[in-house]
């Protein structure tokens, strides 16, 4: 159904493809900045990805102001403040984030601290609260999943209060996203599968949740088609550079979609599964996606029917009776999970992912406090979340 | 004709409806929080004294609520900032919600609401408001406001009458 009103905003310049990194100096010049601050994590440095980024500056006059590589798997206020302090000390004038979701969230977080000239980022937690123009931010993703390079969201943990603070604002959208296939080549099969399923979940939820709109639908549809075409091949053959590139672009397209449509209960529950049972975010998405789709089926079966075309292709879509297409879409996801499980051991149940049955009730209760739940098409109470979790267990 | 310094018009009717809506929501919240166990359970997520402000931007009506014990109380405007602030971006958004022409989740989807504070806690607030609205609006209107209209027991129907009478007048 066409929405009565929607907003769509994506000012991020996307440079994608071969030698995208070599365009860094000219992008800095275009943004009228010259002293970048690079934020990343130790894993990225260890596998040589930072060197690839630094090589992108070869033969230019750019001096890298500082490299901060201490970002942990979950971004925190301490990290954000520490990075912002170093940025100020070195008089940097732009940020380059090289990494996955945590690094990119940290970059957005430190940008709030710098641009709002504060030491207390919590003052800016919430939706639509940031007012100042942010420092130019260039994002170079090293996974094909988060889509953070084109989203308006940042999550930063407040370790003292044991809570994750959400920041959403169009001001947080990066200036440039550099998608270079070299940056995801070293991703192992299991992580490739998990991050790919994360991107697929972004696209499916963007297409089916309450904030959907015709423009983000187009991004979501294209992303789903590309992910289902490439994911299995790339998990089988990690050296498939073209497949890797198409997956990375699909992840970015899914990011554009969900930055404007947001996500629903798969993310709402999945965030809590990650927080309480430490399950990798992409794996939690893959496990929960078909079960939440089954829960929403009665309300939005028609949308799931439409998705069969992008998921399984024109032939399957045409040969499936109209009233069976929604179930066929869900079955497709389940089969995709099974294939990925057999190829790289990606878990397909919560128990395989290490969740303890005794944790399910607490996960169900806390999931309802996730901001994504309000946009799920069907309402959920703790008992209903628990029944979804039990099916996924 | 060139015109300059044009002042925007003000809709006194909409302002009146929204002010009355905030009053009913505040009194209704006080009343429902006295007897509804589900609402009391939601309140347990907040520390005692937790304050919420709902407001219409830029200078419209405000509703302040505070958790006292395991109930909600309407309080007067505070000088300190509330723990959680929900701002309707314009008068029209609040008007549509209070007249059941729209609802909170649609307002979120349309990006017509700002939240200052912990977004997780705003989800608690939305569930509380859903419980209160189920009492404030009869079922034929609730279906415009809630994703799913709860089926009321006989006792809950009596409680709705209580909200409509002493609840809205005195918050009890």
Rg calculated over all Cα atoms of chain A: 20 Å
Specify the oligomeric state: heterodimer
The strands making up the biggest β-sheet of chain B line up spatially as: 3-2-1-4-5
Spatial extent as radius of gyration of chain B: 17 Å
What is the spatial order of strands in the main beta sheet of chain A? 1-9-6-4-2-3
Helix percentage range of chain A: 40-55%
Report the span from N to C terminus of chain A: 33 Å
Q: Based on CA inertia axes, which overall geometry of chain A fits?
A: globular
Write a structural description.
The complex is a heterodimer of chains A (393) and B (172). Chain A has 393 residues and is of the alpha/beta class. Helices cover 51% and strands 10% of the residues of chain A. Chain A has helices at 24-30, 42-46, 49-55, 77-89, 101-115, 189-208, 214-236, 241-261, 265-277, 281-312, 314-319, 325-344, 360-367, 382-392, and strands spanning 13-16, 36-39, 66-68, 94-99, 126-127, 137-141, 153-158, 163-168, 176-179. In chain A, the strands form two sheets. A six-stranded parallel β-sheet of chain A has the order 1-9-6-4-2-3, sandwiched between helices. Chain B has helices at residues 12-35, 37-43, 91-98, 104-109, 119-136, 139-145, 154-170; strands at residues 51-56, 62-68, 71-75, 84-88, 113-116. Chain B has a five-stranded mixed β-sheet. Chain B is of the alpha+beta class and 172 residues long. Chain B contains seven helices and five strands. At the A-B interface, strand 5 and strand 8 of A face helix 4, strand 5 and helix 5 of B. Strand 5 (126-127) of chain A pairs antiparallel with strand 5 of chain B, so a sheet runs across the interface.
Question: Which helices and strands occur, and which strands form pairs?
Answer:
The complex is a heterodimer of chains A (393) and B (172).
Chain A (H helix, E strand, L loop, with lengths): L12 E4 L7 H7 L5 E4 L2 H5 L2 H7 L10 E3 L8 H13 L4 E6 L1 H15 L10 E2 L9 E5 L11 E6 L4 E6 L7 E4 L9 H20 L5 H23 L4 H21 L3 H13 L3 H32 L1 H6 L5 H20 L15 H8 L14 H11 L1
Helix pairs in contact in A: 4-5, 6-7, 6-8, 6-10, 7-8, 7-10, 7-12, 9-10, 9-13, 10-12, 10-14, 13-14
Chain B lengths: L11 H24 L1 H7 L7 E6 L5 E7 L2 E5 L8 E5 L2 H8 L5 H6 L3 E4 L2 H18 L2 H7 L8 H17 L2
Parallel strand pairs in B: 1-4
Antiparallel strand pairs in B: 1-2, 2-3, 4-5
Helix pairs in contact in B: 1-3, 1-5, 1-7, 2-5
């Amino acid at each position: 159904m066409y929405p009565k009103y929607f907003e769509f905003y994506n000012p991020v310049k996307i440079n994608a493809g071969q030698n995208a990194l070599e365009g860094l100096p000219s992008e800095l010049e275009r943004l009228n900045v010259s002293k970048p601050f690079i934020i990343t994590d130790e894993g990225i440095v260890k596998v040589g990805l930072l060197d690839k980024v630094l090589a992108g500056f070869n033969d230019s006059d750019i001096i890298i102001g500082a490299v901060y590589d201490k970002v942990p798997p979950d971004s925190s206020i301490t990290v954000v403040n520490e990075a912002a302090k170093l940025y100020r000390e070195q008089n940097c004038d732009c940020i380059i984030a090289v990494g996955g979701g945590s690094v990119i969230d940290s970059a957005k977080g430190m940008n709030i601290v710098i641009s709002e000239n504060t030491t207390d980022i919590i003052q800016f937690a919430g939706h639509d609260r940031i007012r100042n123009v942010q420092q130019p931010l260039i994002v170079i993703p090293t996974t094909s999943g988060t889509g953070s390079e084109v989203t308006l969201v940042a999550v930063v943990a407040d370790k003292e209060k044991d809570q994750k603070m959400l920041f959403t604002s169009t001001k947080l959208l990066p200036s440039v996203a550099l998608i270079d296939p070299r940056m995801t080549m070293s991703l192992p099969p299991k992580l490739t599968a998990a991050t790919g399923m994360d991107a697929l979940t972004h696209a499916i939820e963007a297409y089916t949740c309450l904030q959907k709109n015709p423009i983000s639908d187009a991004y979501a549809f294209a992303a789903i088609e590309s992910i289902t075409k490439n994911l299995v091949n790339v998990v089988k053959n990690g050296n498939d550079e073209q497949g890797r590139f198409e997956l990375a672009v699909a992840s970015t397209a899914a990011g554009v979609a969900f930055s404007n449509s947001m996500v629903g209960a798969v993310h709402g529950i999945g965030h809590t599964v990650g927080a309480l049972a430490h399950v990798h975010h992409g794996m939690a998405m893959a496990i929960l996606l078909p079960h939440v789709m089954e829960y929403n089926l009665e309300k939005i079966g028609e949308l799931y029917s439409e998705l069969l075309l992008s998921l399984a292709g024109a032939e399957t879509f045409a040969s499936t009776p109209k009233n069976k297409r929604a179930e066929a879409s869900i079955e497709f996801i389940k089969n995709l999970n099974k294939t990925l499980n057999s190829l790289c051991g990606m878990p397909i149940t919560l128990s395989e992912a290490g969740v303890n049955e005794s944790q399910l009730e607490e996960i169900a209760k806390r999931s309802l406090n996730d901001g994504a739940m309000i946009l799920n098409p069907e309402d959920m109470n703790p008992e209903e979340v628990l029944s979804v979790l039990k099916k996924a267990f | 004709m060139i015109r300059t310094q044009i002042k925007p018009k003000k809709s006194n009717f909409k302002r009146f409806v929204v002010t009355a809506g905030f009053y009913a929501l505040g009194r209704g919240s006080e009343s429902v929080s006295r007897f509804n166990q589900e609402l009391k359970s939601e309140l347990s997520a907040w520390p005692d004294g937790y304050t919420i402000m709902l407001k219409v931007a830029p200078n419209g009506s405000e509703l302040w609520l505070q958790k006292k014990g395991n109930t909600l109380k309407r309080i007067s405007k505070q000088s300190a900032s509330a723990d959680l602030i929900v701002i309707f971006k314009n008068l029209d958004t609040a008007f549509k919600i209070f007249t059941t022409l729209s609802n909170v989740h649609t307002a979120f989807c349309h990006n017509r609401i700002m939240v200052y504070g912990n977004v997780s806690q705003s989800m608690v607030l939305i569930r509380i408001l859903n419980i209160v609205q189920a009492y404030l609006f009869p079922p034929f209107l609730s279906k415009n406001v809630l994703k799913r209209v709860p089926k009321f027991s006989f006792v809950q129907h009596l409680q709705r009458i209580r909200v409509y009478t002493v609840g809205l007048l005195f918050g009890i």
